[in-house]
């Protein structure tokens, strides 16, 4: 690899035909961080800013071929996992990651879109817990996703701290528990914990209905890791990236939903 060749980041996630979330957001974020972006499409959604109208999961052997093609040729430093749709996809992806062992695996446990669409079958939760959490160098749940993973409610700051601890107990190396669904004053607090370091990243709550922020946050973290940042610094830098992206955000469709500007 020549010195000017960046590391590659691979997203294994769902496609958003509306261009705001999923694979499309991930590749824009990778490019904005000057990281070479690779993609393996685990699910296709027919989607716009109003919602999801259809989901198609490609055959497993085709997903495997996409992932193998990437690992066989590129120096993949970080893998970002997004919408994986069902247990069969999760088992396949986990098996490949166990074999290929990329240095970083950032798991965004995508379950339900902001629009309410289900992006992961209920029956896949157990596979996510047992197969993917132990492989994740970071998991980035919002509070509803953490509640489903843990099977308990998160109502306040103490519950959120306990949830971060419990997710480490379930095998993730680090957790960034996003606080957007918790109301702790007019600021949002994202909690980072890796078993040793505990940090709180507080930022202003912007009064906008935004699409694709979770996907972009996880892919921005994966890209920052490719650039050599430590895990807590990568999380902080990615949170800042989202805040700037929202400030320059725009409404590409005919609903009120905004997407991030990537720069
Ligand atoms: N569509 C796809 C393919 C996704 O991966 C995600 C990610 O969470 C979403 C939609 C949901 O995006 P949001 O909840 O930000 O609208």
What does this structure look like?
There is one protein chain. This protein is of the alpha/beta class and 263 residues long. It has one domain: Ribokinase (UDP-N-acetylmuramoyl-L-alanine:D-glutamate ligase). 37% of the residues lie in helices and 23% in strands. It is built from 8 helices and 11 strands. The strands form 3 sheets. The protein has a 6-stranded mixed beta sheet with strand order 3-2-1-4-5-6. It starts with 7 loop residues before the first strand and ends with a strand. 48% of the residues are buried. The mean pLDDT is 95. Bound molecules: pyridoxal-5'-phosphate. Pyridoxal-5'-phosphate binds next to strand 1, strand 2 and helix 7. Keywords: ATP-binding, Kinase, Nucleotide-binding, Transferase.
Compose a concise summary of this entry:
This protein is of the alpha/beta class and 263 residues long. It has helices at residues 22-32, 60-71, 87-100, 125-132, 143-150, 157-169, 213-226, 231-247; strands at 8-16, 36-48, 51-56, 76-81, 104-107, 138-139, 175-177, 187-193, 198-204, 210-211, 258-259.
């Amino acid at each position: 690899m020549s010195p000017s060749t960046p590391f590659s980041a691979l997203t294994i996630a769902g496609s958003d035909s509306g261009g705001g979330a999923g694979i499309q957001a991930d590749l824009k974020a990778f490019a904005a961080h000057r990281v070479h972006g690779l993609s393996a499409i685990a699910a296709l959604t027919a989607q716009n800013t109003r919602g999801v109208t259809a989901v198609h999961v490609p055959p497993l052997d085709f997903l495997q071929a996409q992932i193998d093609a990437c690992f066989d040729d590129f120096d993949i430093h970080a893998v970002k996992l997004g919408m994986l749709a069902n247990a069969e996809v999760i088992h396949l992806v986990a098996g490949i990651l166990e074999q290929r062992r990329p240095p970083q695996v950032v798991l965004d446990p995508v379950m339900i879109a902001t629009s309410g669409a289900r992006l992961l079958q209920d029956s896949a939760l157990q596979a996510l817990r047992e197969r993917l959490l132990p492989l994740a160098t970071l998991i980035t749940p919002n509070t509803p996703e953490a509640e489903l993973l843990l099977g308990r409610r998160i109502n306040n700051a103490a519950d959120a701290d306990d949830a971060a601890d419990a997710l480490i107990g379930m095998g993730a190396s680090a957790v960034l528990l996003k606080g957007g669904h918790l109301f702790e004053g007019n600021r949002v607090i994202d909690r980072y914990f890796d078993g040793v370091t505990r940090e709180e990243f507080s930022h202003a709550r912007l009064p906008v209905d935004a699409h694709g922020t979770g996907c972009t946050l996880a892919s921005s973290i994966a890209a920052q890791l490719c650039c050599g940042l430590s895990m807590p610094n990568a999380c902080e830098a990615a949170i800042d990236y989202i805040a700037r992206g929202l400030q320059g955000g725009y409404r590409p469709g005919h609903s009120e939903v905004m997407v991030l500007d990537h720069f």
